[in-house]
Specification:
Blueprint (H helix, E strand, L loop, with lengths): L1 H43 L9 H8 L1 H34 L3 H45 L1 H6 L3 H53 L5 H19 L2 H22 L21 E8 L8 E8 L4 E4 L7 H9 L6 E6 L2 E2 L5 H7 E4 L8 E2 H5 L8 H11 L2 H5 L8 E2 L8 H15 L3 E5 L7 H14 L5 E5 L3 H4 L5
Parallel strand pairs: 3-10, 6-9, 9-10
Antiparallel strand pairs: 1-2, 1-4, 4-5, 7-8
Helix pairs in contact: 1-3, 2-4, 3-4, 3-7, 3-8, 4-6, 4-7, 4-8, 6-7, 6-8, 12-14
Length: 481
């Protein structure tokens, strides 16, 4: 008997280890696929449709970790334990007959209590999750804008907002944790009652000679094997599953945001873009704002050089974003070479359109990574030739690592002018047929500006279309109208 018990325990241990490894491997596989999908989907969200608080959006995407944690640590393991529980109930029925009713009643009662408690904490859980996302968004904003915050003594302002959000999280989270604690006590008491019920009922059955004492002991042990893995996990499952449902709803909200290319539309793949741009009854407004742009008609022929001038906030930069396909009009159509820009395949559009924003950002990596972002490697000779054109070569020459100098997030450590030169260098490497330049020399000194003006005049292909936003007379000399 002792040997059989030791063998059974060893076999049970082996099964648990194998189960844990198999389930964790499956959870990791699912996590890899879903993480890739959600990252790609979030990256495809149209710029004008993104939430104003990017940090909050990133925190919402972190809800995927909550989903993975819940599924891998509780739900899947409970689902794997359920067949064993049913099997053990069958064994109890074979050993003790009517005694099995105690387990058949206690487990559904525990599940029913869990469902009721889950509904009770739903509201507070949702509030806690929203406050937590806003808190993480505030943290991202405070770190990203730390220079401005320090320079303007704004720490107290952000600290006040932070403490308010922390209080909101605690105020909403406390009832959830309190309910979880109470649920743990309830389920613990229920488990003890089930054990007492089996012993009491089993004692009567033993007295009536309907079962043996050994059978009673076996039934008590098997009942513990059912209640332990399943009922003990219910308090954690209540909270985890409630947070998971809220995370799923937030991810659904992100999935409903419009992407760069509408789904279900057959995308066009012309052999190349010539750069002609047309605006037909175009209207655009940022979310929550009145109509900011209204363009009944605008025609820019391929090969034309056009300057955009206007008052601050008049929508010049927005026109460039519409022409690049980064924004979509609320009404009307933007055409490139006579084709609706929304129907042109993304890779074709990005190969044919070069866009330089006012505040050019670099990504974490090396300077080479940033200059060749999305481009085939043309070789070091072509890279240095483009750097010589823009004047970026001086930055490369003054660093021991050359074009492989490390770049931090956003290009911190480089001046605004150096970041702009990096963006212009990439454009001269790409040589698109449509150049969209938003204040390309605003961060440059006179010498660098003169170099860029000469490069734009001499090196931009004559058949390329150029749209420049600027008020500088030197730049406007390059345009036809």
């Amino acid at each position: 008997m002792t040997v059989a018990l030791v063998v059974a325990i060893a076999f049970d241990l082996l099964l648990r280890v194998l189960r844990a490894r198999l389930l964790e491997r499956e959870a990791m596989s699912i996590d890899s696929e879903t993480s890739e999908y959600f990252f790609a989907r979030a990256a495809d969200v149209r710029l004008d449709a993104r939430p104003a608080a990017v940090g909050t959006m990133a925190s919402q995407l972190r809800g995927l970790e909550q989903i993975r944690s819940t599924l891998s640590s509780t739900v899947i393991f409970a689902a794997a334990d359920l067949p064993f529980a049913l099997f053990f109930i069958f064994i109890i029925f074979q050993l003790g007959g009517i005694v099995a009713m105690v387990t058949l009643v206690s487990f559904p009662v525990a599940v029913a209590i869990a469902l009721v408690l889950g509904r009770l904490i739903k509201g507070n859980t949702q509030k806690a999750q929203v406050s937590s996302n806003r808190k993480n968004g505030l943290l991202v904003e405070a770190i990203d804008a730390s220079e401005i915050i320090k320079a303007n003594r704004g720490q107290w302002f952000f600290l006040k907002k932070w403490n308010t959000l922390i209080d909101d999280v605690h105020r909403s989270d406390w009832p959830v944790r309190n309910t979880q604690s109470i649920a743990g006590s309830i389920f613990g008491a229920l488990q003890q009652l089930a054990y007492v019920g089996i012993i009491a009922w089993g004692a009567i059955e033993v007295y009536d000679r309907n079962m043996t004492q050994g059978g009673l002991i076996a039934c008590a042990i098997l009942a513990g094997r059912i209640n332990g893995p399943l009922i003990n996990q219910l308090p954690t499952m209540i909270v985890g599953w409630t947070y998971t449902k809220i995370s799923l709803s937030m991810l659904d909200a992100i999935m409903e945001l419009p992407t760069d290319k509408p789904e279900g539309v057959e995308l066009l793949r012309p052999s190349g873009l010539k750069g002609a741009i047309s605006f037909k009854d175009v209207e655009f407004a940022h979310p929550g704002a009145r109509v900011g742009i209204n363009i009944p008609s605008l025609e820019i022929k391929a090969g034309e050089r056009v300057g955009l001038v206007g008052a601050v906030g008049s929508g010049k930069s927005t026109i460039l974003r519409l022409a690049s396909g980064l924004y979509a009009p609320a009404a009307g159509r933007v055409l490139v070479d006579g084709l609706d820009i929304a129907t042109v395949a993304e890779d074709v559009l990005r190969n044919g359109v070069g866009y330089l924003p006012q505040d050019y950002r670099l990504v974490n990596g090396t300077l080479r990574d940033n200059l060749l972002l999305g481009l085939p490697d043309p070789g070091d000779d072509a890279l240095m030739k483009a750097a010589e054109l823009t004047g970026l070569a001086s930055l490369v020459a003054n660093h021991p690592q050359g074009v492989d100098l490390p770049i931090s997030e956003g290009g911190r450590g480089l001046s605004g002018g150096q970041r702009t030169l990096s963006g212009l260098t990439r454009l001269f490497l790409a040589l698109p047929n449509l150049w969209l330049l938003d204040e390309p020399t605003s961060n440059l000194d006179a010498e660098s500006e003169a170099r860029i003006l000469k490069a734009l005049e001499d090196e931009v292909p004559k058949d390329a279309t150029v749209m420049i936003v600027s008020h500088k007379p030197q730049l406007l000399k390059l345009v036809d109208r």
